Amino acid sequence: MDELVQVTGFTLLMATISSVVMLPVGISIAWVLARREFVGRALLETLVSLPLVVPPVATGLLLLKLLGRRGPIGAFLAPLGIEIVFTWKGVVIAMVVMGLPLLIRTARAGFEQADRRYEEVAATLGARPWRVFWTINLPLARRSVLAGIVLGFSRAIGEFGATVMLAGALPGARTISVAIYRNAELGRDAAAMTFIAVSLTIGFVAVYFSNRLVRVQ
Amino acid sequence: MSNHVRVPIVIDVRIRQGRFTLDLHELIEARTVALFGPSGSGKTTTLEIVAGLRRPNDGTIRIGSDVLFDSQLGIDTPIYRRRVGYVPQDLSLFPHLNVRQNVLYGSLERQNPDQQITEILEIDGLLSRAVSGLSGGERQRVALARALMSNPAVLLLDEPLTALDPALRGRVLPYLERIRDDLEMPMVYVSHSADEVRKVADWVIMLDHGRGVRSGAPGEIFGIGA
Fold first, then answer.
1. What order of strands is seen across the sheet that includes strand B75-76?
2. pLDDT in tens, B147-157
3. What DSSP letter does each residue of A11-55 carry, written as one string?
């Protein structure tokens, strides 16, 4: 029971932190892809979708190489006392990378659906681009953005491959997915099934509300 | 109408978009200019160029003393600094804001709409309503109020009465005349209705296939009785 509470609490906390990190990054990229023409747009589009098609374990291994102590980013962070690999920060980064594409795709659709004429009229009324974004773009796309956050959050909850590569399966930094794998590996089927039930419940609620949000829009 | 102060208006622009070319060369003094002509003649394109929504290949746009665009001087005033009260044909009232919020969108410093504007357009009773529940005529008046409340130097109206049925058109037209007469607001008015143009404008630019084919007072363009 202790393990169930600890792992579920840790997973929800990490997924929440990941969603907070994903939000500004995902919304910015979604808006840029929906509303701006620029050189490299197709490249950015492809890059942000890659985690959806590349095996999560491969994504995790790439992150490990980048963020490990000898990696290009990890080597820079280590002297500053920042350790990513095999810590909760690694869990967050894995969740962000895997959840971001879903947030971007859903939010982008919301930005694209809103009539550009509203932005143009707002600008003629004296609104600068930043105000147009906050008062027109974002409110009109709010349901898609919310649905994207829910999807990104649920993807973060279910993340396994990249998480296990980057953060390992150490006690205290174990997510629900990792706990299911560990318990199944050790033959503790009942414990694994309990975690599966928790995972299913969270996933069901998240997808249900996400679908409702998109449908209402 | 002839007593109104007239402002110098320069719309001297060229723009090529696919197979369509707009080539307009107008230097006039007027209060209310009507862009008149058949569909596809370039009326809306001209209005959008003045608003800053389309960038001409070259030319000059001046309203009064404001230079909105000058390709030779490298001036291209951003849309949000042009002070144009633009009312598009579809009105584009912000659907997530109520009438009051729509009307006040362009005047951040104000808590309440200008009394004169709400009285002229008779929208006082509409302020707390959602825009989705407004009738065609009410939507038109709210869009006009929103544009006027942004303290524009010029009002740009794209076929403001086209979407209305003839009876409603007759009821909304006086509001435009009151804006012109009571607020003395310069207007550029797109229309393909000679009747409307006669009532509202003191200068008409006739467009056809992207070119200004005639330009003059309504009486000169449409004959005696204008």
1. B75-76, B66-70, B58-63, B7-17, B20-30, B211-216, B203-208, B32-36, B187-191, B154-158, B84-87
2. 999 989 899 99
3. HHHHHHHHHHHHHHHHHHHHHHHHH---TTHHHHHHHHHHHHHS-
pTM for this model (two decimals): 0.84
Q: How far apart are CA A131 and CA A135, in angstroms?
A: 6
DSSP codes of every residue in B168-193: HHHHHHHHHHHHHHHS---EEEEES-
Q: How many angstroms separate the CA atoms of B160 and B191, rounded?
A: 8
CATH of the domain at B205: 3.40.50.300
Q: Do B80 and A124 touch (CB under 8 A)?
A: yes
Q: A95 in helix, strand or coil?
A: helix
Provide the pLDDT for residue B61: 95
Q: Is the pLDDT of residue A215 over 90?
A: no
Interval B148-173 mean pLDDT: 84
Could you give the number of structural domains in chain B? 1
> Which domain range does residue B192 map to?
7-221
Structural domains in chain A, CATH included, are 2-216 (1.10.3720.10)
- Cα(A181)–Cα(A186) distance, integer angstroms: 9
Task: Extract the tokens encoding B45.
Answer: 């394109």
Tell me if B226 is assigned to some domain: no
- Inter-chain CB proximity B105 and A118 less than 8 Å: no
* A56 CB neighbour count, 10 Å cutoff: 19
Cβ contacts of A129 on chain B, cutoff 8 Å:
80
List the single best residue of B47, B53, B80 to mutate versus A (max A Cβ within 10 A).
B80
- Whether the per-residue pLDDT at B226 is higher than 50: the answer is no
Structure tokens at A101: 């594409």
